Amino acid sequence: MQRLRERGLSPGDVRIIPAAAGGPKGLVLNPLDRFIFGEWLAPSTHTVHLMGASIGAWRMATACLDDPAAQFERLADDYITQDYAHAPGKPPLPRHVSEVFAATLQQRFGGNPAQLLQHPRYRLHVFTSHGRHVLRRQGRLRTPLGYAGAFVANTLHRRAMGGWLERVVFSDLREPLPLHLRDFRTQVVGLDANNLCASILASCSIPFWLDAVHDIPGAPAGAYWDGGITDYHLHLDYGSMHRPPADEAGLVLYPHFQSSVIPGWLDKALKHRHRATAHLDNVVLLSPTPQWIATLPNAKLPDRNDFKAYGDDVGARIRVWRRAVAESRRLADEFAQWLHAGRAIEVLPLP
Q1: Is 348 among the domain residues?
Q2: 209: helix, coil or strand?
Q3: What does the pLDDT look like over 116-135, one tens digit per residue?
């Protein structure tokens, strides 16, 4: 806080950028992503670690592509225009959603994986949730029973959920994450051309909405689901980050759609786990104010409930989501003004 208040923020300060799960909520960060990766960080030469779960993994993979500003516009369009065949009055089948989404990822990332895996400055780390024991394979009975057990275990203690699900991070082979992952049962797997699209698909595979991704190449056998289950907002021990040279800040820049950083998806109802901890002391979190959110369509962020609320009126949902992204340009403009002013930034402690 003192550094920001005295000198502001520069690209060289940033060593890690996390990207949260949250589905359509992440759309309001699209203009910020375009500015940060397309303009602000573009001239820098230092290494930045990009970490993502669910839509966050999709976003951070997009940042590694050539012409990231244009690629982020395509991501927004891909997400906003989602439409899946389904029987009247029923949701689409998870298998169908997985197949369509897998084709989108293959189109965006599969043709030239070297763009992501050999980026000169960015190191990509994709967070997934790997099923254990009864959740080792997806099944009509196994999956709901397993997630019921994970829910109860997590209520008792977050680490207890590790008996049902573990964190598996598909990580850039050139350089490991510069922080500890001791807060939860974790395995790290090398990210390569054989598992790139499968790991991103797994990280976005919401249970019961998409099918699990099984037996990803190079990773432990079994079922993989949405990375947000274990790491909803990536509330990790950033304070353990390996320190850069003394003249560099080594900060974590976190564009987020809310001011609280919730550890896991099953913690959403556990308000006592929403508070900031010492793990976030070097995190600079950018989030919209409730007053700004109230100006959006329906006075809220886009969310998955909109699929049900708008039903077969896909055009109405698309128009509302496009408007939310357009309004979000103001977030990017305000951040750019802070940076270009070249002066101190008045920041607040995390709640």
Answers
A1: no
A2: coil
A3: 999 999 999 999 999 999 99
Domain enclosing residue 28, as ranges: 2-340
* Residue 68 neighbours by CB under 8 Å, 6+ apart: 33, 34, 37, 38, 42, 62
pLDDT at 2: 83
Please state whether beta strands 223-225 and 213-214 pair in parallel, antiparallel, or not at all (unpaired): antiparallel
CATH number of the domain that residue 91 is part of: 3.40.1090
Look up the pTM and report it.
0.96
Residue 320 to residue 31: CA distance in whole angstroms: 16
The alpha-carbon radius of gyration of the chain (Å, integer) is: 19
- Which helix (H) or strand (E) segment is 53 a member of? strand 48-53
Q: Give me the number of domains the chain comprises.
A: 1
Give kind and range of the element (H or E) at residue 292.
helix 290-293
Q: Dihedral (C-alpha) 251, 257, 263, 265: value to the nearest 10 degrees? A: -150
- The dihedral built from the CA positions of residue 274, 275, 277 and 279, taken in this order, carries a sign that is positive
Residue 246 located in a structural domain: yes
